[in-house]
What does this fold into?
Amino acid sequence: MTSLAHSVLTGNRLALARLLTQVENDTPAGREGLNVLFAHTGQAHLIGVTGAPGTGKSSLVNQLAISFRKLEKRVAIVAVDPSSPFTGGAVLGDRVRMRDLSGDAGVFIRSMASRGSLGGLAQATAAMVQVFDAAGFDVILIETVGAGQSEVDIARLAHTTLVVEAPGLGDDIQAIKAGILEIADILVINKADHAGVESTERALKSMLDLAHPVEKVFQHHGQSLAVVREERTHSASEPAANLWVTPIWRTVATDGSGLAELVGSVQAHAAFLRQSGEWSMRERARLAAEFDLFIQQTLVDRFRARVPEERIDQVLESIQKREFSPREAANVLLSREDI
Amino acid sequence: MTSLAHSVLTGNRLALARLLTQVENDTPAGREGLNVLFAHTGQAHLIGVTGAPGTGKSSLVNQLAISFRKLEKRVAIVAVDPSSPFTGGAVLGDRVRMRDLSGDAGVFIRSMASRGSLGGLAQATAAMVQVFDAAGFDVILIETVGAGQSEVDIARLAHTTLVVEAPGLGDDIQAIKAGILEIADILVINKADHAGVESTERALKSMLDLAHPVEKVFQHHGQSLAVVREERTHSASEPAANLWVTPIWRTVATDGSGLAELVGSVQAHAAFLRQSGEWSMRERARLAAEFDLFIQQTLVDRFRARVPEERIDQVLESIQKREFSPREAANVLLSREDI
It folds into this structure.
């Protein structure tokens, strides 16, 4: 199966599609392919696009792809949002819009079968992004629904995270306030031709003004790798070189308004990350987290291979009888020297 | 700190609040308390309430609590939704409604500080639910925002999961279709006095009709513990004793309309779970998952204690230079016999 990975490196789209399936299903062939491809990763700009249903996020992703194509960038789209038209939950209008991209060899769209990969969604997304990165895609757009923890985990993959809002979704602003704002590098008010755009922008601005500067702490094994203070104030003055001031952009994805400015801002963010050293810091934190996960999985696999199934069943029985708590039972079982 | 757990068992509210904080922060005292309390768990009915922002889910949780209080049940509310008024993101109207519950010793409301417990939200929720269960609360309402994977994980905790919709939130129905529908034991159309309730109900019904019967597979270590086929068709005929037909209820949480019927349905679902044997099956699957998690955490802690930090740093360095993939590096490090 190594040849599949090598075919991906030569630009074979069919091999790419096949390897993505292997990787998503976490097969031995997929794992081997990732090992081969890993040396070729680290070039792509990973852009997360997150927002509530109804914000027109998928159309915006579509327009971003078209804009990056005009800049001669090869673009991959990974749709993790179960309500995204890219994942098949489309209404007709969205399907029509997707036609703009189909047939372009510089674009590859892949949706995640999120239902099957419970718990491992962020991991599967990370692996698929690595394949696209090695395959030479310059820009990888990762679309998520942006509400749960797994979306935040997926956003951590990205170099640049766009949080999409729309006028008239008052309740969602509450949700953004509570968590999503912290992951936003760029805020987008899509459907900016709708009524209420001013009040949405005012609400977002006042939230940015209220927010304390965010300390992004990159940790590994409890050790801080680095602390980056990000100023969240939307100020008119020129930002310092080591500070990124979260901008707010208005777009109308259905006609492309505001897209040029947004793409410029996305590229400015990439430049900021490289200049400030945050690009490599984010990469290091991401690779460390991935390494941790493999350590963990290997340890668990080993444990399962060493402990007989009947022993586990006995222990579960005693837990269900409330003789031991799950934590006590785990401690008792692992206190044997040879496990 | 064992005495804190014992005070919880005697009904001391201050001890309960203190232990919940210890448990949420995963302190040694919290872990010890959970071990002591575990023998007293397994009595409460765990009810998940999930839905998009704007569905009036928090008001519904409030009304459910009031209804269960009328039935002389002790009620705990665990609010995991960052936009919930119970978590402090309240508008004034919601705060006023909460007054109905304050001052009632049979009710305890606790919100999760979801920002701090990245990745461990489901685990922290499970632990807090165990404390309420041991403390003698008959009904534990777990409120989540219902979009991401962590919400699905939290829903798995519950015996009965309510998915809340509201008229006029068309896009959200798409999201429900894709994933949330599968976790619903009961569908609720709240704000049923608003326009569009009929079309929302029609949409939900046709989704239920289209849905294949869901096979719920309870797994442990890759072994199926049990497979439960649930019929999703909303049919007028009497369901078989071993089938639960997902009902759709209309409510108006602001005036309590439909609450009596909904509470009756929730209690019917509990009876169904006990009769069909699914109650203990769900419990076994939940305890097995918790046990797995502790095994995993203990193995990782041990690994960290045995491998010098400098060795890890070297390995991360070589990963960042693309000399090894994260998976290869983990394999190399763990191939040493003594780790």
Q: What stands out?
A: The first strand of chain A starts at residue 45 and ends at 51.
